[in-house]
Protein 1
Amino acid sequence: MNLDTLHGSKKLDNSATEAKTSRIALVGQPNTGKSTLFNLLTGLNQHVGNWPGKTVEQKQGFFTLGDRKINLIDLPGTYSLTANSPEEIITREFILREEPDVVVAVVSAATLERSLYLVAELIALPTPLVIALNMVDVAEHEGLRVEADVLQAAIGVPVVPITATRAKGISDLLKVVMQTLEGKIISAARLPEIRADHRQALKEVISIISGSVPSPYPTDWAALKLLEGDAEITNMMQSCLPDGKWEAVHDVLREHDDAMLAVASGRYEWVVRMVRAAVARPRPGQISLTERLDRWATHPISGPIILAGVLGIVFWLTFTVGAPLQSWLEEQVVVRLADLTSSAQGSFPAWISSLLVEGVIGGVGSVLTFLPILAIFFAAFGFLEDVGYMARAAFVMDNLMHLMGLHGRSFLPLFLGFGCNVPSVLGTRVIDSRQARFLTILIAPFMPCTARMAVVAFLAPAFFGSYATLVALGLVALSLLVLMLSGIFLNLVIFKGQRSAFIMEMPLYTLPNWRTIGMLVWQRGLSFVQKAGSTILVLSIIVWALSRLPDGNLETSYLAGFGKLVEPIGQYMGLDWRLMVALLASFVAKENAIATLGVVFGNASEATLAQTLATTFSPASGLAFLTASMLFIPCAATVAVIRQETGSWRWTFLNLGLMLFVALVVSSVVYSIANLLVI
Amino acid sequence: MERYTPLSLTQLKAGEKAAFINLVGGRGIAGRLTSLGFTPGVEITMTQNSGTGPLIVMLRGARVALGRREAQKIMVQREQS
């Protein structure tokens, strides 16, 4: 069977097919190459969304296998099936409730012992199981040879060796999946047992709860989860056991408070038996590539230097490739589209043309011009994750992040914010705990992005002459200080000073898989255009309307009226209504502040505008305005992705409120201090 | 028979091996650690410990990074080299 023929016939024709649809669930621990296999099987024929009510990504796709249509569901990567995280609950609930036809467990040959632990859990569930033994090539590099047929005989479940990055062994895997679907393979799985000293306790729990376990949970499985101290199953059983029985279960559990270790030890004893049978070490004792690279990459001195170099390259790429592409798109597509619309002016009223040019095309344009930068950041991000460097960067930055109750994983997403806050917020998906992720999202927009720095670069020389660079650096330092203080404050207030534990697998370094990286760029880009795009468009039209209505003149518009209304607040920062309007308009895109000032100051050319401003306003007002622009509420695109990633307007408004408050307070303070110093 | 005193994982130097005994005061992280393979008796090799900040250990053929606070809760018994 050839993969190309599989892809060739992937038509999604719902009406005409009479082919049977089978559901296959893909399960595996993180870093086992599960996504690579998923992308290989489904190609572009996949859909990315969220699991209902969760912020966990849900991916599914379709392909055809013989006369069957296959619905492949990529379940979240998890180390076990105990309720430690939403991912684990989603995975086991899906397998138990949705009853897929086959579960394919992806296991890494390079970390066989650890990755078989999940199999030890899956094998106890009623769904037929096929094991895909991935990364056989990586394992051989590490001096490990795994004999798949021995493993298969030992576990009693089909094991197929594959190398997903090079599309090897996939047709064999699909053949075995097909045979399992057709019921031609009868597995005789050998199940792990609880450690001997707890067998009696398990028997007792089973006998108490049997008959009372709600479907679809198997009784033996529920008993094991009770002994493991699984919070979900404990709550469920407590509420559905008849009077007296829960107390009996509770007594057994209290007597065996180390039962969790006994259950896990039992599984690992099973795993070790399997590994001992199937793994040969032809070249023992060699120092692996990963170990050699890690001596540098995680070293307390060379580690941060390497990280700085890697980040330097990412930004160099952004500015040499992304920025020109961005301005090319701006000139070739956005400006031309606007010209085209303006030239067709005669055919419809002026306000429609203005709506189209400034509202719609302006909004679409900002979505479009974001794309090159986003694509480069996602590609860089995907690359670093895929080769295994991401975990090292997190390791190196862990100490610094602790100050804010975060850990190393938050560093890279935050750092991306220097380029643009949008990929920064989207990049928080690499953070494993929900609390750390939301905290990172809340503070990420304080990172001084390039658009804000452009405003500073435009105004600072006119106001501060030769001190401009110093002022710019000071503003960056101030933003970072505000970011850290907000992090510490939010962590204390919202998350009660909890610190998420830093426990992270350090995967082996591997060669990058371009398909995986390409798919990531494609999916993230697409979801940005689809979801954030519509929000940005709406917000941009609203701001357009406010700046035009009622009579088409900015100076007399609602926006200006609002600027005059809030002028009293502006006084504390030394800002008049014109600067306030510029600040408000920066909501659509940060660099809009300059364009708006241009309009308010009678369409002054860019060259003279900065001078005009410097003569109109005092340096203290100028500094306060720049401070406010740095800390003011994020741009519409960032707001849209905050909403998308947190799945809640409450968190989004919390961020807006926080930034608005901080911007007003800090720039008022800056204004007062600047005035004192000057006088 | 020789008696060993349990020590915290943070006290191991790079290259040293030890056997996992138990967790002290780490209820919140117990589930995650056990699924990563921290079960009684398992051999842990310290691969990176610079004295401050996080450290890296090797167990069950895989590398795991741990924050210092988490590592402090892991009690081990040094193995004779």
Note: DSSP finds 30 helices and ten strands in chain A.
Protein 2
Amino acid sequence: MILDQVVTGLLTGLIYGLLALGLSVIFGVMRIVNFAHGEMSVVAMYAAWAAARYLGLDPLLSLIPIAAIFFGAGYLLQRGLIQPFVSRPDYMQFILLISVALILTNGALLVFGPEARGIQVDYAFDSYEIGTFLIDKVRLLAAGAALTLTGLLLAFFRFTLTGKAIRAAADNRTGAQVIGLDIGKLYAVTFGIGTASLGAAGVLMALLNDAIPRLGPELTLLSFVIVIVGGLGSMTGALAGGVLIGVSEALAGTLLQPSLKSMFSFALLVLILLLRPQGLLGERS
Amino acid sequence: MKRTALFVLIGLFLLAPLASGPYLLSLLTTLLTFAYLGQAWNIMMGFAGQLSLGHALYVGLGAYVSAALSLFWGIPPILGVFPAMAAAALVGSAIGFLSFRFAVKGVHFTLLTIAFAEIARLTFQHLSALGGTGGLFLPVEARTGVDLIHLRGDPRMFYYVILAMAAALFLACRALMASPLGYRWQALREDPAAAESLGVNLLRVKLAAIALSAALTAAGGVFTAFFYNALFPDQWFGLGYSIEIILAPIIGGLGTLFGPILGAILLTPLGEAITAVTDGLGWQSAGIKPFCYGVCLLLIVKFLPDGIWPAIRKRLP
């Protein structure tokens, strides 16, 4: 029973990891905190819902086109709106992205209404029995997709030339400019990648949860907790933090009251902020 | 010129209830509440440069403490406001002290303020003695007469109470800005390292800003509790409310005295007008008001990052 919950939490945590990875990549490279992170992924949930409802597309198929559109949207958003704010004080970046968050949440409310929108796939109630574990098929597939995408992203940053250039720009902006890297373009690509991964995570979450506008701020806070726990700016940290929060939420939901699970996350957030601001896996700067 | 404009503004606010019906009066009361809360938040962010996105915590504390004291022990809000302010100042100081002791700065500090507000929201959701998610309600009596001690009475009384509070806070902030503490806050805001090297005690100055801002915000919470009579943790401690509080000062002008007032004067009627128009057209309008606030905020940070008031002041003779 409890082990079942651990497995469920682990699988959900992999999706959380992909979600938080987007936030961490953007912060790690540009030092910008995307306060509209959860709101953007809720837009992706609605996109997945609309694709399923009107085009009959399974979210696992609409995942790629939606992530691609989100990449483009993120690229343009950074180029058109956020770029001049990179060098402005922190609080102005926060306020800019808070305004984006307000527009997205309430835009979703205006377009889709306050009702929850759920996707019903034919395999929604299938499950696998492995040994003594009972695992939902949907959750397993979604988690598998999230893990694959996370792996691809980590490989992209590690092995490709663009990925290395972005890491160089994150490490030393002036140095990167000296050797002739186009910082503006790299930042836009980074924001695109961050948005694509939160978009993909949103599509996968749409398989497990109904889309509803007020989920936006909740997911933003959840992503903050995960990246702070894992270390703000650390990519593997985001994945580890996602799994840790996924499992601990699942356990807090069973062992304590379900409504207390986010309390646990926030208490963890406060402790990490005070005692280990670099995160559990991050390095002290 | 500026002085005349100020007197005209004060005169308009003083005489407004004579010419307005119940709807306009409640609109003006909301407007002044946001002007007041924005001014209180501005002490911490605008003067001392500490961005709090958890100010709903102090509104909620003020509201719940005073409401509980009145409901369970019969302590009227005119006395209850003091423990309410003290509780908020204590919590604010604790957050300030922890953040100072563990060197939590910038984005991490802001996240800390959000985390504490969220923890308070979840805690109050589970405090069944204070109503939990079901809410805590103050008895609504006939809205006539004037009982300042129990803060019960005519809507006009509430209007004049918040007007007096907003005016007093405005004057207090003006005095604070020109005081030694005010200059130390500005030094902390502009360059903490330089301020410290000149002998400014950063801890004391930071704590003063947070405690004062929290206590004043809580006093606003006491007023709001007795004005609306219904307290829900999700609403009063929520992140949405924290954001609503910061809109007026940012749009009006961070760190200025007129900013929060101007912001509230522009925003509140705008929100009401938009709701009225969409309702009139028969559209589904849930979310339209915050949507427009989001658009305003975006336009302001993009094109007038210092806010509207500094732009106007530059053009004044």
Note: Chain A touches chain B through 42 residues (CB under 8 Å).
Protein 3
Amino acid sequence: MASEGIVVRPPASDEELAKAANFLVRFYRVNEEFDPLYTIVDEAEPVAREMIQRYAEDENSILLVAVSGKRIVGLIHGEVRHNPILRASPLGVLMELYVHPSYRRRGVARRLIEEAAKRLREKGAKAIAAEFPHLNEIAVSFYRDLGFRPLTSVYIKELEEKQAGR
Amino acid sequence: MEYAPSITVREAERKDSEKLAEFVVRLKQVNEELDPMYMVREDLEEAAKEYIEKSFGDPNVVMLVAEAEGEVVGMVRAKIIDRFFYEPRLEGLVTDIYVHPLYRRRGVAKQLLAALEKRLAEKGINLLAAEHPPNNRIAEKFFAKEGFKPLLMRVYRKIE
């Protein structure tokens, strides 16, 4: 199955922004499974709406949806990140990517990444990176297949809470 | 390590229904991410409530919950299956096991399994099984660590 008939472009209406927010929540719900530090807030939908609005307006961000007919089937958000000491700066970083389960396995994510990469390059990005939970092995093999290699490792630990009766 | 309240495991009761259904929904939504053939139905929430309700009325189902400070933070549901051709005849099959993300990485699922095992042993069952999508690596690693081994492969194809 190919991704023909899939159009990748920025969301074009409030309705599409709402759908994008829904996909953003779904994306974070998947991440939630990988580590307690990915636990999302109780009322995630309105928060996601605000995030999507910000992504759509922010000059350093790109927000794209994959559309099949009139249906939104995928979402990608990335940003350009600056570190002036590095020759590779700015970097284009893909932070959220989601394809609806019924549109998987037909290259929609690949199309989203290609278009995102193109637009991040137009914003000056010299290389493209993707961030995802360390334990997400599906993402690991997906990005490896697309020619990405591991670059940064993020290690994390909780900060101790105030000693309460201990 | 951050503050970790102690976890207790007990038999599920009807007052837990809402939480049980919520966890079943979350679990099926995880599966949905793993393969298009796990696409959930539109009325998933209703279905989960019905599933829990039926489970309470089924003598062949065991449901336990994990509690932290009076709140339900995890659940396990097992169904007793007659293996018919094989000895031992009965197995307890874990159909659903879920721990709220905030309570992960502190052995809650392990505790749920241990309590389930005890409960099944009381019923004279000495075989424990679990099922999960093949590409759920987290589940795969968890069950392997808990001493499970693959015994059944189920394959699917669509009828065109």
Note: Residues 17-34 of chain B form the longest helix (18 residues).
